[in-house]
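Protocol step 4 of 6: record predicted structures for both targets in the notebook before any analysis. Target 1:
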Amino acid sequence: MKHPSCRGLYAITDALLIPDDRLTEAVEQAILGGAWLIQYRDKSHDDARRLTQARALNELCQHHEVPLIINDDVELAAQVGAAGVHVGKDDSAFAIARARLGGNALIGVSCYDRLDLALEAVRAGADYVAFGAFFPSPTKPTEIRASVALLRKARAALNVPIVAIGGITPDNAPLLLDVGADALAVVSGVFGQPDIQAAARRYANLFA
């Protein structure tokens, strides 16, 4: 069943930050700290490894009743029964994902710094849209930058949840929440910290 909302801390895994043998433990710590959604993001080409990890994470997330979103791999999401998938700017990606995963899947679309992409995604039926990077990001230092003004315009124009991503810390996050972000997508701010649960809680407390 589709999760009723896309709000709160949206924690995204990174193979460079989390050793394979600690992935499930790290994600559980993020959930215990208050993450509302988990995204499994692994750009490697080791299909067997990715399938094993995604299955383990989906079992964990189902146990905690937290949606698992698979980054940019519709087939992997279908194989493990994940809650949904996050896709990029490819025009056909959303349609393919919806056709493969069905109407109950939670499907998000990256819209970078472009409101037009978001409007198009919403018309197509996207469940949420993501903008960013809003701040310099250690995960993607050359990422396209989005502005707070864009976020404010998007909030006025869109009726779906908006996810902000890119260099977000507990200190700069309130600025994004004040102008309309519903969820904060965080990678290193959670999984790059020595105490993952405490790091996650600092973000989650912003939504209390």
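Target 2:
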Amino acid sequence: MDIIVCVKHVPETAEAEIKIDGTGKAIEKNGLVFDINEWDDYALEEAVLLKEKFGGTVTAITVGSEDADSVLRKCLARGADKATRLTDPKFEGSDGYAIARILAKVIKDLPFNMILTGTQAGDDGYAVVGVILAELLGIPHATMVKKIELNDEVAKLNRELEGGLEEIVEVKLPAVLTIQTGINEPRYVSIMGTRKAMKKEIKVLGLAEVGLGENEVGEAGSWIKMEKMYVPPVEKQAEFLKGSPEEIAVKIAEILKAKGLV
């Protein structure tokens, strides 16, 4: 069972103050902590669990700068066997389609039974790379996967739906699966694993090695182009109503009437 896991190096912004940089198209990254994308973390763990059960290899691949090596080292420490970083200045500005195209050009020449990605990325939330990757490779896919059972060349999957419901489907391998959080519990990285990971090679490929032209990557090769990024201004604040239930009910009625809703 040879599994490829696509991972991304993203900033942790949940408790950080976000500022827009001088270009108006990105955030200021100074002072932000970067780590593996949360959804990709679960995809990596699922790949390692499958390898431990069925044998085979796990290869982690990312599109990013040299800073993304920290995420690849984490993947290697957690059980990945190989790591590849796809890096080139021309990749800057690539949207989900262009990223999937870059990945597809490299992955098509690799042996694999399964490709796992996170359902989405925490920095852009597009949730399209896995689906487009499957289409470019001409193989089946399933999204929002919460459980994987393998039987010969078929994967029986539980997919998360709305309202707490799940759908059970069967997909013939090879296939691309986008993994939802909660499918497993990612393991901690051991000190020994970290030391071993530091000694492993990270393969680096640029635009020429990938085999794409400049017009096929970056903004030129993207379907979506970033025009402007901004922090939404605070226009209104919540109003807390105080008083007895009867008094609050009267105030609510007055507000609805004033806004022409009743």
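Step 5 preliminary note on target 2. Residues 2-221 form a domain with the Rossmann fold fold (CATH 3.40.50.620). The chain has a mean pLDDT of 93.
Proceed to step 6 after PI sign-off.
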